Amino acid sequence: MECDVLICGTGLIESILAAALSWQGTNVLHIDSNNYYGDNCATLTIEQIKNWFINSKFNKTGFKNYKNIKLSINDTDFNVVSRDYGIDLSPKVLFTKSPLLDVLIKSRVYHYLEFQSLSDFHTYEDNSFGKLVSSKEDIFTDESLNLLVKRKLMKFLKFIVDDDYVSKIDEHEMGGKLKDFMTKNFKLEDKYANELIFTLGLINNPDINAIDGLAKIRRYLLSLNVYGNFPAMYSKFGGPGEISQGFCRSAAVAGTVYKLGSKLISYDQETKLAQLNDGSKVKVNERVISSLNQVYEKPLECKFYEISRMILIVDKACEEWFNEGESSSIVIFPPGSLDSNNQYPVECLIMGAGTGCCPQGKCIWYLHTIAPTVNNIAENDLKCALSNMEESYLRESTFNYDDFNEVDLKFYNNNKVGLTESGTEKLSKSLRDFKIRHSNERINYIMKLEFTQLTLVDQLVQANKYGYDGIIKKTEHGILISNMPSSELSYDGFVEEARKLYIEIVGDDVDFFDVDFEDEEEEKEQYEFQLKEREMSLENGTGSHSSNEDAIMDDTDDQTGDMEFEL
After folding, report:
1. CA distances in angstroms from 262 to 27, 295, 334, 362, listed in the order given
2. What is the per-residue pLDDT across 494-549, written as a single tens digit (0 to 9) for each?
3. For residues 135 and 224, is the Cβ–Cβ distance under 8 A?
4. What is the chain's Cα-based Rg?
5. Looking at CB atoms within 10 Å, which of 83, 210, 264, 438 has the fewest?
6. Average of pLDDT values for 36-44?
7. How many CB atoms lie within 10 A of CB 566?
8. Are 358 and 405 in contact (CB under 8 A)?
9. Do the Cβ atoms of 285 and 4 come closer than 8 Å?
């Protein structure tokens, strides 16, 4: 076998790179030691999670760079159907203004995917989960905010959405802490600063500088009303793993050859020969790229950093967390909001049955933090966050609204209801009574998975935007290493990482997804013409005895080199 570029691992970064190179004319061989797509950011069934757990424990190729792994599955109390679940190893959300969405549209990979809106963001403060106030309309209509707070928030929003906002920042303040900048210039209290920084910005580094932090807050606000009144989306039936398959399909159409269940066991930089585990040898004319999971040797000067994750399948629908018509939400625990006195935020993505990732009546909670694992700090933070989510959910689902009368309630515009002073006192008593009555009550979990994911990039260094850096990492034998997914909850950084490797191989990024696709209408007309032609052929008895659908699929198989997809 011979190729220009050999790529090991079908994670999202590698899949974007494969598609970009293929459409540029590069002969690509794309392999993965697993029998499914996604590698380090795959979407897995319950059975695949079991397999991942065992192989990760033994640090096998394709399952490397995980530690502190714990898995429990309750198949005694529940009839667990493996394929009913799609569990992300590294869940992400897609802002409507983002480089990945631009590439999805430009490459037409979005044709293979289905997206749903996500607009429900919550911040945990004072033992409760506050709904985010993020737009001018919300601020104007929220009568729980006093006039002074409204004025401060409006001043900040007006500042951040201005295209020329950077020029209004003093040069010496740009490198200072974001929170200090917001306190000094906008006099925002901690409660509102935390919402803007950690919930709007999805910032997991509390010491982020002003210039980088403001850009992340601005990302949220500019993403509102691009496709609707929501800032973010997610791909149905799975996250990065589903999108990885889309780019693999695009790459296959452009000529990439795929070989799953194959791993690289050696590469000779002098002879340019790569040997695979089935005994075959591949002549690589240009470069070999591998994910950290798939490479057989460590990168030079390798140092690992940690992201701690907890994934739970919950025996509850959790519809209380979602906006009407939506099936997902985000919950943020800012620094210092937990009993563990967390130094770093805990971020949680909640996915309901409407996402296609779990059955009706169930829900998936994804929690993660970049807190250090030493002395069980990260583990304690995650457990405290989980305990608060449990308590809040149980409290809301058992809450008796009949205990409140007209004296306890006050009504706002848009049918919103708030509490008077007597109502607040009654609520506080209700919370105390709940803790006494339900101290031993817990939510049932179908699955609980905990692990520490290792990455080559320090997530706390300011220059490492979105958890990635600008350094090309290599092994002793010249294999280029793509970075593991970062702690960033959004997809930002993936395209930049793929572009970085593309430039290393090609020399520049002029042709990066610069594809002159056939006109869409012309393509549609040609497809309809071929379909009609086959129908006529079958009616006249001159065609094959397979169905029209099978005939069309045969064309697709020819085009993609007999490659099968699970999309």
Report:
1. 18, 12, 43, 35
2. 999 999 999 999 999 999 998 876 555 555 555 555 555 555 555 554 443 333 33
3. yes
4. 25
5. 83
6. 95
7. 8
8. no
9. yes
Tokens of 443: 């939510």
Residue 399 to residues 390, 394, 427, 507, 529, Cα–Cα distance (Å): 14, 8, 10, 62, 60
Which amino acid, residue 261?
A: G
- The answer, as to whether pTM is greater than 0.90, is no
| Per-residue model confidence (pLDDT) at position 564 | 39
Mean pLDDT along residues 135-150: 60
- In the structure encoding, which two tokens stand for residue 230, read together? 């929501």
pLDDT band of residue 115 (cuts 50, 70, 90) is very high
Greatest Cα pair distance, the chain, in angstroms, is 84
Q: What is the mean pLDDT of residues 457-479?
A: 91
Three-state secondary structure string covering 220-278:
HHHHCCCCCCCCEEEECCCCHHHHHHHHHHHHHHCCCEEEECCCEEEEECCCCEEEECC
- Amino acid in the structure at residue 385: A
Residue 230 C-alpha from the chain's centroid: 17
DSSP for 129-173, please give it: EEEP--SHHHHHH-TTS-HHHHHHHHHHHHHHTSTTGGGGS-HHH
Structure tokens at 160: 């951040």
* Cβ neighbours for 70, distance < 8 A, ≥ 6 positions apart: 448, 449, 450, 451
Contact 499, 505 (CB under 8 A): no
> Residue 523: its pLDDT value, please?
54
pLDDT in tens, 193-228: 888 999 999 999 999 999 999 999 999 999 988 998
DSSP E strands: which ranges in 358-416?
A: 363-369, 409-411
CA distance 43 to 566: 11
Q: Which amino acid is at 284?
A: V
- Select the more confidently predicted residue: 560 or 154: 154
| Residue 241 and residue 37 in contact, taking contact as beta carbons nearer than 8 Å | yes
Structure-token pair, residue 357: 């990732």
| 281-291 and 480-482 beta bridge pairing | parallel
CB atoms within 10 A of CB 215: 15
Q: Which residue has the tokens 């009407």?
A: 324
Q: For strand 281-291 and strand 2-8, is the pairing parallel, antiparallel, or unpaired? A: parallel
Segment among 354-358, 376-380, 548-552 with least mean pLDDT? 548-552
CA 90 to each of CA 62, 241, 331, 352, 511: distance values in angstroms, whole numbers, following the listed order: 15, 9, 16, 17, 29
> What tokens does 277 get?
């585990």
Question: Alpha-carbon distance 233 to 497, whole Å?
Answer: 21
